[in-house]
Design a protein that fits this description.
Shape: flat
Helix content: 40-55%
Structural class: alpha/beta
Strand order of the largest sheet: 3-4-5-6-2-1-7
CATH class of the largest domain: Alpha Beta
Bound molecules: guanosine-5'-diphosphate
CATH topology of the largest domain: Rossmann fold
Oligomer: single chain
Length: 467
């Protein structure tokens, strides 16, 4: 990162396209720009121009003409970073961009590190840390749901919520600490009962936020879906059909185990990640026959399980299969959807009977499809998106999508639990006060009220250059 007070520059657009944007920020930006930029209208002096002016002109270095450009000017503090800024819209030739940056560097401008513009915005109080992180998320968002979450966070609602909790805990901390000042006299200013109530209230909100991370993460990276079923029921056919029909994203998700295949695709504005859809082993015991064994471990991380059976199966067998899946997924909260495939092979009488019998045996949604004729696929898509949408109803207003926030919330929760235990066990106030302070600290870590330099560097290094 460049020193505060220096001018930084970077291309803000990625390669390709017709136009590229080069950004500059820092005190003296406009004066430096004036050394290489000449407005076509020679009445205009950019040094005197107002903020938000858009000026047409040319960029050259001594006698070398480089490009015809448009320049936007921003006066501090009315800019993204809060500093004096300029943006040069030039032609997207890599040569032109490189030359412009080179001649800026000759004039003492430094190249910006990834995220440095946003870091300056944070440093200048334009946004808090969680909003700054949302900027990176919004750039990366590639589904309607991920975009919705990132933009809520960017608008600052989540930060305000966290800040409110932090203020509540702070006043709580000062009450307790007041007692410490008078510890000789053994007075209690704070009503233990009311304090406990407050801590329970805050902790429950913190816990709900932390719990929403599972969903938030799923939205950001794709809702994990497991397709389970015994060999040959049509799992691969179903997945291939979905991949053909929906905009498929080539799967390349780091951190997945070697032997699992993951396919990522959009269905109804949501990103789904189909896990471990690779062929299931034949043979084996009964569970293995049902094709459950290999998906077993994966069931715990699934938001949705597509339990695939055949339309020629008996209703009892299908229900038994669904029960085993439910048991194996335990309390993970995964939604199970019965997908009855190969409807084309069953007679209409068989299907009618299954439709009547299945609801009596298990209360899971069942969709009849044929991966060959593609019948029932629209309904399956609807049921799939509805399963996740309803899962969201019990989520809090704000959904945590960031692993750093999640860690911090867990720490807050643990500290608050120690406060509650302390009250119950009559632990000395001085120890309770330490735990309250810890909780306050971790809440501050989320919004950047307290953030060590090295953590800041780490957060912003994940940004793209020019942001
Ligand atoms: P998997 O082992 O569960 O992944 O099953 P596959 O997708 O490989 O399908 C097994 C066989 O069933 C293949 O020969 C498919 O062509 C066939 N199949 C899959 N879905 C259907 C269907 O809806 N109708 C019919 N008639 N055949 C299907």
């Amino acid at each position: 990162m460049a020193q505060k007070g220096t001018i930084i520059c970077a291309p803000a657009t990625s390669g390709g396209g017709a136009i590229a944007l080069i950004r500059l920020s820092g005190p003296g930006t406009i004066e430096t720009l004036a050394g290489i930029f000449k407005p076509v209208d020679d009445q205009i002096d950019i040094i005197k121009a107002n903020g938000y002016s858009l000026i047409y002109g040319t960029i050259s270095s001594q006698d070398e003409f480089i490009d015809e450009v448009l320049v936007s000017l921003f006066r501090a503090p009315h800019s993204y970073t809060g500093e004096e800024m300029a943006e040069i819209s030039c032609h997207a030739s890599p040569f032109i961009q490189r030359r412009i940056i080179e001649i800026l560097i000759e004039r003492g401008v430094q190249t910006a590190s990834p995220g440095e513009f946003t870091m300056r915005a944070f440093m200048n109080g334009k946004m808090d840390l969680s909003q700054a992180e949302a900027v990176a998320d919004i750039i990366a968002s590639d589904s309607a749901a991920a975009h919705r979450l990132a933009s809520t966070q960017l608008r600052g609602g989540f930060s305000k919520e966290i800040e409110k909790l932090r203020m509540e805990l702070l006043s709580f901390a000062s009450l307790i600490e007041l007692e410490l000042d008078f510890s000789e006299e053994d007075v209690k200013f704070a009503d233990r009962f009311a304090l406990t109530e407050t801590v329970i209230k805050i902790k429950s909100l913190v816990d709900r936020l932390a719990a929403s991370f599972r969903l938030g993460n799923a939205i950001k990276k794709g809702m994990p879906v497991v397709i389970a079923g015994r060999p040959n029921v049509g799992k691969s056919s179903l997945l291939n059909l979905l991949l053909q029909e929906e905009r498929a994203i080539v799967s390349d998700i780091p951190g997945t185990t070697r032997d699992t295949v993951e396919e990522v695709l959009h269905v109804g504005g949501l990103l789904f990640r189909f896990i471990d859809t690779a062929g299931l082993r034949d043979a084996g015991d009964r569970i293995e026959e049902m094709g459950i064994e290999r998906t077993h471990g994966r069931l715990k991380e699934a938001e949705v399980v597509l339990a695939v059976a055949e339309a020629t199966d008996r209703a009892e067998d299908i229900a038994g299969f669904a029960r085993s899946l439910a048991e194996l997924s335990g309390d993970s909260g995964a939604k199970i959807i019965l997908v009855i495939n190969k409807s084309d092979l069953a007679g209409s009488g068989e299907i009618t009977r299954l439709k009547k019998e299945l609801p009596r045996l298990c209360d899971l949604p069942a969709v009849f499809i044929s991966a060959v004729t593609t019948s029932g696929m629209d309904e399956l898509r609807m049921v799939l998106t509805a399963a996740v949408e309803t899962g969201r109803l019990d989520a809090p207003q704000y959904i945590v999508t960031n692993a750093r926030h999640y860690e911090a919330l867990k720490n807050v929760s643990e500290s608050l639990q120690r406060v509650l235990d302390g009250f119950r066990d009559g632990i000395p106030t001085v120890l309770i006060a330490t735990d309250v302070r810890q909780a306050v600290y971790y809440l501050g870590v989320i919004t950047g009220k307290i953030t060590p330099e090295d953590i800041l560097g780490e957060i912003f290094s994940h940004f793209c250059i020019g942001k």
